[in-house]
Amino acid sequence: MVQAVAPAMIDDATIERSPGYWSTVWRRFRRDPVAMIALGVIVLLILIAILAPYIAPHDPFRGATLRRLRPPGTPGYLLGTDELGRDMLSRLIYGARLSLFMGVTPVFLALFIGSAIGVTAGYVGGIVNTLLMRTIDIIFAFPSVLLAIALSGAMGAGIVNGLISLTIVFIPPIARIAESVTTSVRSLDYVEAARASGAGALSIVRKHVLGNVLGPIFVYAMSLIAVSMILASGLSFLGLGVRPPEPEWGLMLNTLRTALYTQPMLCALPGIMIFITSISFNLLTDGLRSAMDIKA
């Protein structure tokens, strides 16, 4: 005869708990070697940017005319010197600070503003949705590169103006994604149940909507970081972003263009850094998107 076990005698430790959503995402993400390598490269670049004063071999602002345009491998200058005799390795290391800052900051500012606009338009709907999204569509109609150049040209060169112009460029696509996701979530059963229970709009959005829409919006915003870095470098290349003598990879491409035929490797170094960083963010985003697709 089988003896029944009382519920009180069951040890809680023996109850297997299903892993949470983010635990599952992290486990799936770790199984993607390409995404993990991309994450490692980005972490390494962030550490280089933070530790730049301690690992840069020379002052990135101090140069000498007698040692200008030295090729890579020159004794004491591993990656050579630029057009003013400044150490290229030191400027690339310090350049990671501004390049990452100009790539990440506009996206996160646009993530905050665009998400607020998109979630509001998607949840409220009606005339509010129409007014907000048609205004967004007007900005969205302009090509991002031309819009960034026009805004930076109108406001003038500088880091702050560059951040503002890039933020404005990225608000429309993020707002469009946020509005689309929120519109699909607001009609789900649990949202309708919360609304029927008498919960206020702000409470429903905070407790039931944001948790389900921020994931897709964040992943999409991550994919824009690489675009932001390229646009920021392009603005600096055109003289509309970071001003000399600040070390920034796009600006370094601009100042080294006169040495393209004499020292092509020196000109390629900032471009290589931009390429490595951009592709790393793209691969990281692809891995994160795949990891979050639990049904796949």
Can you summarize this structure?
The chain is an all-alpha fold and 296 residues long.
What does this molecule look like?
This protein is mostly helical. It has one domain: MetI-like fold, CATH 1.10.3720. Helices cover 69% and strands 0% of the residues. The protein is built from eleven helices and no strands. Helix 1 packs across helix 11, helix 4 runs antiparallel to helix 5 and helix 5 crosses helix 7. The protein is elongated. 34% of the residues are buried. The model has no long low-confidence stretch (mean pLDDT 87).
Topology:
Elements: H1 21-30, H2 33-50, H3 52-55, H4 88-124, H5 126-140, H6 144-155, H7 159-185, H8 189-196, H9 201-237, H10 249-255, H11 264-292
Helix pairs in contact: 1-11, 2-4, 2-11, 4-5, 4-7, 4-9, 5-7, 6-7, 7-9, 8-9, 9-10, 9-11, 10-11
Q: What is the CATH superfamily?
A: MetI-like
Q: How far apart lie the N and C ends?
A: 45 Å
Q: Helix count?
A: 11
Mind telling me the C-alpha Rg? Answer: 25 Å
CATH class: Mainly Alpha
Shape: elongated
What's the CATH architecture name? Orthogonal Bundle
In what range is the share of β-strand residues?
Answer: under 5%
Count all strands and give the number. Answer: 0
